[in-house]
């Protein structure tokens, strides 16, 4: 016993007092970046990379860039040619939309963005917001199409640029969503035929590339309609996007439906609610709330995928950005144009992805720690 | 639970399927079973009517426009050239062969790309998990940037970059033997002749041998507790055997390094500008998604698993291989399946930058023959089959590695 006690004491003397708990910020920084040899090596490589890359990027983007002038001025400079964007931004944003009517898509986009920003506030998620959207959408379309209130009509083959991208995405989501809910419910239905049809639709659409649906809508759909019916090209692409989005959204919604405990279904049944009543009032509100973050994630994907419509000859934002590249006076500035397009797409997508992370925290307070 | 002889009428409350079988009395149209049959019959009728309407419209439209139907065009002469082909092809070949060439091009980019993406993505995902904040931030910035820009835009960017490379005479030469020029990317290849079939055969034999050895060593470990290291045997069988066989039959082991001759390169392997742009674009884009999947998988393994394994005295590499990775894979495999599928489907964007993949060849075919329904049906069914095959394989694999609970 005493032997053990002496052992412990001597061991304590050997070990010495515990190290000081206090660490200066500088010391902590040193430990985080150079704590171990490997960590130090990683830090040095990263710093070297940044030291090598940053000046190059800053020079190209800012210091050596040509901000105004002609293509000749640009060719003299070593950096980016922002004069090209300055000269062509109208075409890049609005494509072939009639130049004298550009205030209309501008106003349309302003209204659209205002509504989107308003919809992002959770405090405003009320019925009135839906009514506001219902009122806004026709205004958006009237602004683009014209034909009434003294606005000059603009056929859809002149619609182009960022407005088309925004409209296609908006209608794609809004119209695909009810379809997706029906498909998700169908896939979980107890009726074998309904389940089979839903599964077939979802797997078929998810198994083929979006391009093939766009080809189908633009080339085959007219053949499937009675002779003489013409269907607008933009509308055809829109149909393909809706069909595509519905299948993917259906899987997201299904995940939400599966996350609802069986007790909820049973409780609704025991209250004597019909199938539709229990879905609309008990199951779907909970399921949809759960899947809002992945829905936003899916939507970012669709927003990026709308660029594919240029392959079937429609004029979205990416098309409009590429159009001035063919201008013989301004050959060779594709990088600037792509950087410009990438910046705008990035702003939209990054905002959405950050917003979905925010929503995830907001909507599941029980999971927050 | 005793089974009652009489039909149970009291338990209508419960699961819908149970309720459906029970008659609550009243009119027959209030019976849930009957109703469900009626609904299904109605939906079936509607689907048949819509399809029938489409079909009859299509028939009359095609007849009016004088468009031929059927797949007869597959045997006709294609008459258009294809930039790159894995099998012999000339414009004099048939449309059928042209489509096969396109299909092989799709497969080529998909297989090479999926392998590259897996490595690059795993690497990026691990880097992003680094405890070094500098590296983790750099990686997450890179991944965010790539993920939030449309793929098509990135492909255009890479293609524009690849075709602005200087002509062959001033080709960029970043690493020995690799040349970047506007004719494509040149990399060293291996000289291949017929004797390499022996080497390939040796690799197959080696693989089978390694597998058998692995089974034997596992059985022995189960029986005796002794473990035979697989590494020397695998190295001998997979690398040693082919080299020995190659030396015996005298197969050349020379590298075919590209050389500038006149206005172009000779020798080496060529990646055409289109293939290079598509491969780089798709791989960089998809790797950002793979990185996130890998990161999530590794994070999903409880830290206690590492600690428990280390407490048992297992060395770290072995902990990773035997304990952490098998658990992480369970999380990683399902989303990786859809990533591989997406890669294959996204390779159809090749049409935008002129790489002759299946969709692009089918597009030319339908423009020339005027038979869009058949051409689109062909590539849609090819993609669908590929999707089903990949997901069937991955489901099998997923089941194999999934948690077996008693």
Please tell me the total number of domains of chain A: 1
Which CATH top level class of chain A fits? Answer: Mainly Alpha
Distance between the termini of chain B: 25 Å
- Major pleated sheet of chain B: 3 strands, antiparallel
Task: Please describe what this structure looks like.
- The complex is a heterodimer of chains A (369) and B (406).
- Chain A has 369 residues and is mostly helical.
- Chain A contains 16 helices and no strands.
- In chain A, helix 8 (162-187) runs antiparallel to helix 9, helix 8 (162-187) packs across helix 11 and helix 9 (192-207) crosses helix 11.
- Chain A is flat.
- Chain A starts with a helix and ends in a 6-residue tail after the last helix.
- Among the domains of chain B are: 16-61; 95-163 and 274-401, MetI-like (MetI-like fold, Orthogonal Bundle).
- At the A-B interface, helix 3, helix 9, helix 10, helix 12 and helix 14 of A face helix 1, helix 2, helix 4, helix 5 and helix 12 of B.
């Amino acid at each position: 016993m005493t032997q053990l006690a002496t052992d412990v004491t001597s061991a304590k003397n050997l070990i010495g007092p515990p190290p000081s708990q206090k660490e200066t910020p500088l010391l902590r920084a040193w430990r985080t970046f150079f704590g171990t040899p490997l960590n130090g090596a990683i830090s040095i490589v990263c710093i070297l990379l940044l030291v090598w890359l940053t000046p190059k990027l800053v020079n190209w983007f800012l210091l050596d860039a040509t901000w105004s002038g002609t293509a000749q001025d640009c060719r003299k400079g070593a950096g980016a040619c922002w004069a090209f964007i300055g000269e062509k931004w109208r075409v890049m944003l609005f494509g072939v939309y009639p130049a004298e009517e550009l205030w209309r898509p501008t106003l349309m986009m302003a209204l659209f963005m205002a509504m989107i920003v308003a919809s992002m506030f959770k405090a405003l998620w009320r019925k009135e917001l839906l009514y506001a959207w219902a009122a806004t959408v026709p205004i958006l379309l009237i602004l683009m199409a014209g034909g009434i209130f003294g606005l000059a009509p603009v056929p859809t083959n002149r619609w182009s640029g960022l407005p088309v991208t925004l409209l296609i995405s908006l209608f794609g989501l809004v119209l695909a969503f009810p379809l997706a809910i029906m498909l998700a419910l169908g896939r979980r239905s107890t009726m074998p035929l309904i389940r089979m049809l839903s599964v077939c639709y979802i797997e078929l659409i998810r198994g083929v590339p979006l391009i093939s649906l766009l080809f189908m809508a633009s080339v085959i759909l007219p053949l499937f309609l009675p002779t003489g019916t013409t269907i607008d090209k933009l509308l055809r692409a829109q149909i393909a996007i809706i069909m595509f989005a519905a299948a993917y959204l259906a899987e997201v919604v299904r995940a939400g439906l599966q996350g609802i405990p069986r007790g909820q279904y049973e409780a609704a049944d025991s209250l004597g609610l019909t199938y539709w009543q229990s879905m609309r009032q008990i199951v779907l509100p909970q399921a949809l709330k759960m899947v809002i973050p992945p829905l936003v994630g899916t939507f970012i994907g669709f927003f990026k995928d709308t660029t594919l419509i240029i392959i079937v000859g429609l004029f979205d934002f990416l098309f409009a950005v590429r159009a001035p590249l063919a201008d013989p006076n301004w050959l060779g500035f594709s990088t600037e144009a792509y950087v410009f397009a990438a910046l705008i797409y990035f702003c939209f997508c990054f905002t959405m992805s950050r917003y979905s992370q925010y929503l995830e925290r907001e909507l599941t307070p029980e999971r927050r720690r | 639970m005793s089974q009652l002889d009489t039909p149970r009428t009291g338990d209508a409350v419960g699961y819908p399927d149970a309720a459906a079988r029970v008659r609550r009395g009243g009119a027959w149209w209030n019976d849930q079973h009957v109703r469900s049959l009626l609904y299904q019959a109605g939906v079936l009728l509607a689907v048949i009517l819509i399809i029938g309407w489409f079909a009859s419209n299509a028939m009359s439209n095609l007849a009016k426009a004088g468009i031929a139907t059927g797949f007869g065009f597959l045997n006709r002469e294609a008459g258009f050239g294809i930039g790159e082909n894995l099998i012999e092809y000339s414009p004099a070949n048939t449309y059928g062969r042209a489509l096969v060439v396109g299909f092989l091009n799709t497969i080529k980019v998909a297989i090479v790309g999926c392998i590259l993406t897996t490595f690059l993505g795993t690497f990026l995902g691990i880097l992003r998990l680094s405890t070094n904040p500098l590296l983790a931030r750099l990686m997450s910035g890179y991944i965010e940037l790539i993920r939030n820009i449309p793929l098509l835009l990135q492909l255009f960017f890479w293609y524009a970059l690849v075709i602005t490379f200087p002509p062959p005479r001033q080709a960029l030469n970043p690493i020995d033997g690799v040349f970047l020029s506007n004719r494509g990317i040149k990399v060293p290849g291996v000289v291949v002749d017929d004797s390499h079939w022996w080497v390939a055969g040796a690799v197959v034999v080696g693989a089978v041998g390694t597998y058998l050895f692995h089974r034997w060593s596992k059985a022995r470990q189960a029986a005796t507790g002794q473990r035979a290291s697989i590494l020397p045997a695998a190295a001998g069988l997979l690398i040693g055997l082919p080299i020995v066989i190659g030396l015996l039959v005298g197969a050349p082991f020379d590298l075919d390094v590209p050389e500038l001759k006149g206005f172009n390169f000779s020798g080496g392997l060529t990646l055409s500008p289109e293939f290079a742009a598509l491969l780089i674009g798709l791989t960089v884009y998809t790797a950002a998604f793979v990185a996130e999947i890998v990161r999530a998988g590794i994070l999903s393994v409880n830290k206690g698993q590492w600690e428990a394994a280390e407490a048992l005295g297992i060395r770290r590499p072995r902990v990773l291989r035997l304990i952490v990775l098998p658990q992480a894979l369970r999380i990683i495999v399902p989303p990786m399946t859809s990533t591989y599928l997406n890669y294959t489907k996204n390779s159809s964007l090749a049409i935008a930058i002129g790489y002759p993949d299946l969709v692009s060849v089918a597009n030319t075919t339908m423009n020339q023959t005027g038979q869009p329904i058949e051409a689109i049906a062909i590539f849609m069914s090819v993609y669908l089959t590929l999707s089903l095959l990949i997901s069937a394989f991955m489901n099998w694999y997923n089941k194999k590695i999934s948690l077996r609970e008693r």
